[in-house]
Amino acid sequence: MNVIPIDLNVYSDEEALLAGLRSGDRHACACLLKRFAPRVYAVALRMTGDPDEAEDVLQETFISACKHVHEFEGRSALGTWLHRIATNAALMRLRRHTPEEISLDQPVASLDNEDIPHEISDWTYYPAGHVLDGETRQVIEQAIAQLPDTLRSVFVLREIEGLSTEQTADLLGIGVSATKVRLHRARLRLRELLTPYFTSPVEETSAS
Fold first, then answer.
1. How far is the C-alpha of 151 from the C-alpha of 167, rounded, in Å?
2. DSSP string covering 21-63
3. DSSP labels for 123-175?
4. CATH of region 8-100
5. Coil, strand or helix: which one is 181?
6. What share of the chain is helix, strand, coil (3-state, %, to 5)?
């Protein structure tokens, strides 16, 4: 059977793409996937910390988007809408796999001593521009993936996706104060996880 190639340039304009989706054109769905899949997958992977879970979130996101496109009112960009669907799908999976005693919805009142990292060194020698290095990016991503679900979800939404504290709290269904505490814990935990990588060679030499 001959396969007719899909001209995705037909839907290079977002309004045209949205019209195609609403008309049920499968080519529009293919274009939507090609254009936004990398971003959606990145969000899902950071939220879940698991490639398999991220793939499932990716699939759920685009199935849901194509199915409910008529509910999209256009108040935000299409990418923002997909981001919201992916975030909610990831959070649902985190809630499903997170034990009740550390539920994502559980209030957090304070920061106790157990959350203070025991090994934090000075990173000031490290050139800021070097964080764009591919190896450094990978190390940071791996450290984020090691955070507990409750901390990773706050950190990703607040620091990586750029949501406000209020928006993050609303998505997670927790209070603003709990969001701030968890973000603080996430930053401390990340700093501890990344300390071995960012430790100054001078410090290592003097210590040996």
1. 16
2. HHTT-HHHHHHHHHHHHHHHHHHHHHHHS-HHHHHHHHHHHHH
3. -TTS-GGGGGSHHHHHHHHHHHHHS-HHHHHHHIIIIIS---HHHHHHHHTS-
4. 1.10.1740.10
5. helix
6. 70, 0, 30
Give the three-state DSSP class for 182: helix
Domain 108-207, architecture per CATH: Orthogonal Bundle (1.10)
What distance in Å separates the CA atoms of residue 18 and residue 66, rounded to the nearest whole number? Answer: 10
Between CA 146 and CA 193 the distance in angstroms is: 9
Domain map (residue ranges) of the chain: 8-100, 108-207
How far is the CA of 47 from the CAs of 1, 6, 17, 166, in angstroms? 41, 32, 27, 18
User: pLDDT (tens digit, 0 to 9) for every residue of the chain, 208 residues total?
Assistant: 444 455 556 677 788 888 888 888 888 888 888 899 999 999 999 898 889 999 999 999 999 998 889 888 877 788 888 988 998 899 888 888 665 434 455 544 444 434 444 343 444 433 444 444 677 788 888 889 899 988 999 999 898 888 899 988 988 888 999 999 999 999 999 988 888 877 655 444 444 4
